[in-house]
Amino acid sequence: MSALTTMARSGRAAGARPRSRRGTRLSPYLFVAPFFLVFAAFGIYPLVFALQLSFTRWHGAGAATWVGLGNYAYLLTSPEFWASLGNSAVMWLLIVPIQIVAGLAGAVLLANAKLRLRGLFRVAFLAPFVTPLVAMAQVWIVVFDEDYGLVNHLLNLVGLPDVGWLTSTAWSKPTLALLFLWKTTGFAIIILLAGLQAVPAAVYEAAAIDGASRRRQFWSLTVPLVRRSMAFLVVVQTLAVFQMFAEPFVVTEGGPYGSTTTAGLYLYDHITASDLGTGAANSFLLVLLVFGLSLGAVRLLRPKDEVS
Amino acid sequence: MNQTRPGPVQYALLALLAAAFLYPIWWAVSSSLKPAADIITDPLSPGPVTLDNYRAMFADVPIGTGFANTALVLAVKGAMTMFFCPLAGYAFAKYAFPGKNLLFGIVLLTLMLPTLVLIIPLLLEMSALGWVNTYQALILPGSIDAFSIFWMRQTIAAIPDELIDAGRVDGASEFGVFARVVLPVIRPGLAALAVLTTMNIYNDFVWPVVAVNDTSHQTLQVVLSTLAQNVTGNRIGADFATVWGELLAAGSIAMLPLLVIFVLLQRHFINGILAGSVKG
């Protein structure tokens, strides 16, 4: 609105520059058009197509058979579908609470105004976030190998037996969760640090004068004030965990015994099996779930005084 | 926050945390530089430096093709993001036009669309177009993304209107104002966008692994994952250690470009990450 109203207010004669005025009217549409073209071609079209596909049985060739809600019914009664959601839910429990606590601890440590070498620590914490996931997944394969890996080598040195980090159903999820935590906790620290630094130092000084202890200050000032950053993190990481794909795809291929077949990887399995109608239905169920979870997280973590 | 000088405990904790984040990277790089057999027999000590793993890896793995394909996708897709997203952001920030709120609402809505939902339908669209195993399949989907538009709108909204009007008075065309007034002013924002876009395209994996299956079009990440699958699928064999050496060499060399960019441009990088959290 500003550009047009300012022009009108500045009182330039309307007829003086007709070409430019018509340009003004058309140009914003031209400027946003490329996004909408790309989105229509590679967003809306495939979405509509997928919705239609989700009501059919189709294996990538020949005619599709209309099955109504059959694919949805199949998935909702399929143990494998629920197992994939269960695996993702366990991953979520192993990742999000730990990341929030560790992220907050790291951020509080970094927030001290008199800290030296802050830049250096920040670089170290964020380095994993920059590394390609696939490359680090390879490192995980090697480091957590049952027979020759570094971790079991260390365990043997102190007299402990080998652990099947990637080959036992008990440890496969925590080992992948650790990869996710290692890679993204630095990101959490930086986000929470920004939230912390938005709190004016004067607020803490006032609290200290009022006699609030350090612990008291943390719980009644810091935590409520970084709630917004925490809510953001929980939403982003919930989306990421339920779409987790590359970690199990590269490191465990969903095994052992399907224990790391996350919701994201299960979706991919439909592609491999050329069961595309079911895959499309699975996509939409997953979207509904992820939407619901993010909405719930936003509700739960919203500061109480905010209405919308 | 608390203004007391940090004590040794605080530094020790920070150092411990830093070590936990850096050690896997250090271990991968240093192990890739020692004789392959030592990676298995003596994973702790660095050992004598050798480039044997790299030589073997370059001979066995099409990593050069991977780098070239990633560079091509990065150049074209990155250029599209860097040009069209600020342009759309400018329209949303500084113009009044009928339908603007609706259109911007659509942009915001697409922000919430999980990537995964589009994978299967996009793949089908690509095969209908005959685009499986092509560069356009790797480049076009997601080339003008909603988040970057949203971010650039926020950045451009902070420019005073007077500056833009002054550009108009000087007789610049509408696009001229964007190119010669707006873009120079938001240079720091563009730098952050460039760094973040580079990271996202370079590390992108889910779509490339689905869209491309012939070696000649594989991006770097897909080449790496193929190598990893060879390892997990082929555990037994005399040259098991050699394969590990190649794996670590490939991983290390793939990490390098982004780590260098990150260390050199960390300020822009961190600005980019923080810009993303504002939408929350």
UniProtKB/TrEMBL annotation, chain A:
Question: Where's it mainly located?
Answer: membrane
Membrane topology listed for this record: Multi-pass membrane protein
What's an example Gene Ontology biological process for this entry?
Answer: transmembrane transport
Residue span(s) of domain ABC transmembrane type-1: 85-297
**Key word Transport present:** yes
Where are the membrane-spanning stretches?
29-51, 89-111, 123-143, 180-204, 225-246, 283-301
* One Pfam family linked to the record: BPD_transp_1
Among InterPro entries, the record links this protein to:
ABC_transporter_permease, MetI-like, MetI-like_sf
Q: Which domain of life is it from?
A: Bacteria
Compositionally biased, Low complexity: which spans? Answer: 1-17
Q: Where is this region: Disordered?
A: 1-20
Q: Which GO terms describe its cellular component?
A: plasma membrane
Q: Where in the cell is it found?
A: Cell membrane
Q: Keywords in alphabetical order, please.
A: Cell membrane, Membrane, Transmembrane, Transmembrane helix, Transport
The answer to whether the entry has keyword Membrane is: yes
Fetch the CDD domains from UniProt: TM_PBP2
PANTHER family hit by this protein? ABC TRANSPORTER PERMEASE PROTEIN, DIACETYLCHITOBIOSE UPTAKE SYSTEM PERMEASE PROTEIN NGCF
What family does the database annotate? Belongs to the binding-protein-dependent transport system permease family.
Protein name (database record): ABC transporter permease subunit
Automatic annotation (TrEMBL), chain B:
Keyword Transport found: yes
Segments passing through the bilayer: 12-29, 67-90, 102-124, 247-265
Mention one GO biological process in which this protein takes part, according to its record: transmembrane transport
Instruction: Output the superkingdom of the source species.
Output: Bacteria
Report the subcellular localization. Cell membrane
Record's keyword terms, sorted = Cell membrane, Membrane, Transmembrane, Transmembrane helix, Transport
Instruction: Output the Gene Ontology cellular-component terms.
Output: plasma membrane
Q: Name one Pfam family in it.
A: BPD_transp_1
Q: Which SUPFAM superfamilies match?
A: MetI-like
Q: What is this protein called?
A: ABC transporter permease subunit
